[in-house]
Amino acid sequence: MKLNLKRLVPVLCTGVFIVSGCAKQQSVKTDQPLAPSATTQSAPAKAAAPATTQQTAPATSALPSSTIKSEQIQSQPAPLTQKEATLAGALEKVYFDFDSDVLSDAARKTLTENYAKLKAMPSVKIRIEGNCDERGSDEYNLALSERRAQSAMKYLVALGIPASRLSTIGYGEEKPAVAGHDEAAWAKNRRDEFTINK
Q: Where is this chain compositionally biased, Low complexity type (predicted)?
């Protein structure tokens, strides 16, 4: 019985090795790119496997880096033109009362002035960024800042700016304009800002 086991173990190991070798060889064949030199070779399968593995390794390793580079190039926004940069700097901020997303008379006047500037450049898209002061929970301030941005957007749409040119985002208290813990600082942080959205 022991003698049979000693003979059986090498046979089983050889069988496992052959089966696993065939599986590897099959995966190399399905993953390799089609190339005339690879398909016309008449070398034995075991000799071809290492050669094709070496041939496909550089192509596979080069592919992700080139893909990443092309994605990075595509995701970079185009630089602002002189007119767009002037417009971005000319759009005035809108300020809000404490715990409110209602547009004051001063805010409506500012939005009307911003509308005239936006109307002069019909191809420019704008992102309205809502902000809050530091008081209140993070969740509450995020929701309030989004409502503030939406209020400005609705007003600009009512004036005649197409909604497709506008987008909104709420930052809550994440982007304070002024550092400080008093009413003067808080009043400057309760605002909507306007940026070019490329």
A: 33-64
Position 167, amino acid: S
pTM: 0.58
**113 occurs within a structural domain:** yes
Closest CA to 151 of 178, 130, 165, 127: 130
Residue 50, domain member (yes or no): yes
Q: What is the pLDDT of residues 93-126, one digit of tens each?
A: 999 999 999 999 999 999 999 999 999 888 899 9
Domain containing 170: what range?
A: 82-196
- What is the Cβ-side half-sphere exposure of residue 149, based on CA atoms within 13 angstroms? 24
Residue 112 and residue 184 in one domain: yes
Distance (Å, whole) CA 164 – CA 5:
77
For the beta carbon of residue 48, count every other beta carbon within 10 angstroms. Answer: 16
One-letter amino acid at 81 equals: T
Domain count, the chain: 2
